[in-house]
Design brief:
This is Glutathione S-transferase. One of its GO terms (molecular function) is transferase activity. The chain is an alpha+beta fold and about 210 residues long. It is built from 8 helices and 6 strands; from the N terminus they run E-H-E-E-E-E-E-H-H-H-H-H-H-H. It folds into 2 domains: about 1-80, Glutaredoxin (3-Layer(aba) Sandwich), CATH 3.40.30.10; about 90-190, Glutathione S-transferase Yfyf (Class Pi), Chain A, domain 2, CATH 1.20.1050. It has helices at about 10-20, 70-80, 90-110, 120-140, 155-165, 170, 180-190, 190-200, and strands at about 1-5, 25-30, 40, 45, 55-60, 65. A 6-stranded mixed β-sheet has the order 4-3-2-1-5-6, covered by helices on one side. It starts with a strand and ends in an 8-residue tail after the last helix. The structure holds glutathione. The site of glutathione (GSH) has 12 residues, from loops.
Length: about 210
Amino acid sequence: MKLYYAPYSCSLSPLIVANEAGIALELERVDIRQAPHRVGEGEAFAAINPKDYVPALRLNDGGLLTEGLAIVLYLADRAPASGLAPASDSAQRYRLLEWLAFIGSELHKSYSPWLFHPELGETAQQAVRAKLAARLALVEQALADGPYLLGERFGVADAYAFTVIGWSKLTGVELSGFPRLRDYLERIAARPSVREAVRAHGMAVAAAA
Ligand SMILES: N[C@@H](CCC(=O)N[C@@H](CS)C(=O)NCC(=O)O)C(=O)O
């Protein structure tokens, strides 16, 4: 399988999950800083993925799977013994979906694109920062119940949360009021699978601290 990725982006999350699951992925870098986005020697990425954003996973049957949420679940389900996602018929599976949706819509899409594009305006930035502070407080609260979002075991929601909240340093989101969250990021950053993913993904600084 091949993962289309871009450094510093949300495509780090599926790479962490693949490493944790013991699944080797071929990596193809996409330059999302230039328009149109381009792959490798210059092919337009939109010709490969009409959504024109990463991550995208080329499956062994030739199909293309997009949306980070779907990709991390797909990878985790290829390696059920890894425990990265609860079984599909379990109550915990819905808790996982709840977290993935929250991270995707409430966190990911607040940091990006808003905080990466100051030109979108100070009013928008302030509104997003206030919203994020409230959402991150919910994560801080959840971490009182266990070291990871679903309790004792690291899973796909943690890979996604680490990736997204890891943008805090780059975007000036203050985490000093969230000690459990800071410990959580450090704990995840120390995992060998995560260190390797961060290295391969070309992302020198992941933890927000
Ligand atoms: N809904 C998508 C969003 C993915 C996304 O926002 N990707 C960003 C990088 S983190 C991207 O490729 N942006 C380039 C663009 O939108 O032009 C998902 O959850 O996978």
